[in-house]
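Why run this: before we spend reagent on co-expression, it is cheaper to look at a predicted model of the complex and decide which construct boundaries make sense. The entries below are exactly what would go into the expression plan.
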Amino acid sequence: MYYRPCGVFDETYSEDVAVVRTPVGWSFFVGALLFLSILPSVSSGSFIANLNSIGIVVIAVLGLQLITGFTGQINLGQAAFMAVGGYTSLILSVNLNVPFLLVLPASGLSAGIAGIIFGLPSLRLKGFYLAMSTLAAQFIIPWLIVNAAPDITGGTKTMVLPAPKIWGVNFNSQERMFYIIMPAMVLTIFFITNLIRTRIGRAFISIRDNDLASEVMGVNVFKYKLIAFFMSSFYAGVAGSLWAYWMRCVSVEHFTLMNSIWYLGMIVVGGLGSVLGSILGTVFIRFLDFSVLAIGPMIGEIFPSIAALATASLGPTVFGLTMMLFLIFEPRGLAHLWDKLRFLYRIWPFSY
Amino acid sequence: MLSLFPQFLVNGILVGGVYALLAVGVVFIYKAIRVFNFAVGEMLVFGAYIAWTCISVLKLPFLIALFAAIVCSILLGLLIERLLMRPLIGQPLLSSIMATLGLSVFLRGIISFLWGTDSVSFPYKVFPGSPIIIKDIMISDQLLWGFILGLVVFVLLVIFFEHGKVGLGMRTTAEDHQIAQATGINVKRIFAITWCVAGVVAAIGGILLATRIGLSVVNTPLVAFKVFPAILFGGLESILGAVVGGLAVGILENLAGGLIDPSIAEITPYVILLLVLLVRPEGLFGLRRIERV
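The model came back. Tokens follow.
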């Protein structure tokens, strides 16, 4: 919900439903887009590579936010749906030579169909039972990828993809991939921000808040749950496809249960039921990850005897601790923290 | 292949005994405080590593190691309850799921820091005995120990839960925290006891598993992911269901792995789980809840 300070009124309907409302908001919005569009030309390769990985994860996490944060269905298999997208891209681009612009939505579609299949039990399941049936997806999908058709998917081997090509332009560097990944991320944010304001999004939220009550009020719960599963997995598939093209290779090792848990951790840290939260959470956790990667070797230099152990164990320790601390102290996540800060700024120096 | 059928069946029953033991530990927590413990895999590795340290590094006899493992696991359980679970009382379902998931990641980091990520095994067979051979079927003594211990712990837990005063308090707490408090039950103490019991069960299960398949922070917790389907298969609220589920998963996994294809054993529990949940959403022995708006 977006509350404006008193004294700011809407005079037309379009003002009332606008996402970006104030001139300040517009200038931030346009400024951010401009900043993103010139970033690759002024910045170094590894930074852009990190941003690319964040962009891809943001898409997957937004998908997860849709199903878990907005529809209230716990999904422990987001990484597996990413794997479906990644391997669809592999098959389409390597075996069938389909152009990139078709592969991307096709990967999303195939992952979405997988999502519908594993979402089918959601008709009768909820809570832990549903979490388990998505956990089943996390085990069954990689197994199928490895064992069902190893001659196409390469089994456990890492398979190489060509660089994406759009109208003769080869996107073969980090800076060029940035121009695919960032627009995809911005579009995803745009779609999901607006989706939750539509009939479908409101149905999702009503299912999250009380599925029985929403059924009684005329929301077709099963239909909307399946839509939620489809869309969530669609974004996962798109993210998986981008991941495959970005890494230029695909392997089931990239889409493990651990990744699914990380994505869930990101929406918890960011804030459930908040688009901004998904972005903040992803960026926060990734930066935590990067800083742990940087700090680990430093600890190793100070205490050489535990160097190898420290680098291996610091990441999970810090991530698990962050997740638990956020659950205990700020269960509504970074998005709520941001809201509180903004509110403080607006009313400062008076208390209301 | 079919001649091996009885062998796989026996193996399955025996492996299922260990699964059942771990499943009972998780169901026990769920019944008492409505928290699904995703960290059970790491808790059992923790207990097993304590025992391993006592035996291999400190050269202590097995019984002392077992005692140390149980004491440390109880302490771990108490810490989890006091620091993580108590602040989360009254939070929605997702919080408790995420908290135990976060706990499992955290414990994994701590364990890999303390003991490394390499696989270790006990220097000698901690449980005495040698394989029993009846006709063509070999009954592994280690598996048999696991099965028997699993049954013993199961019976003890059922007696504890159904007949003791504490068990009665737990059942009341499971029904409603506020009503339990109003009748004079110390709900916090019940929570603490629950996590202690869970720690003990995890420590025993961990040692049993470690003697059989070795001990590593990477691979041993994966067993927990076979226990979860077993629990839901039997129904979250039923201890008997956990035992049946554990045995069923053990048997079907061994049969599918042995008779069809070894790699299919990994996903068998989940395929069964999906099929059962499609027919009976509350599991075989689970409580069918009537919900009201």
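The first helix of chain A runs from residue 13 to 17. Strands of chain A lie at 159-160, 165-166, 169-170, 249-250. Bring this page to Monday's planning discussion.
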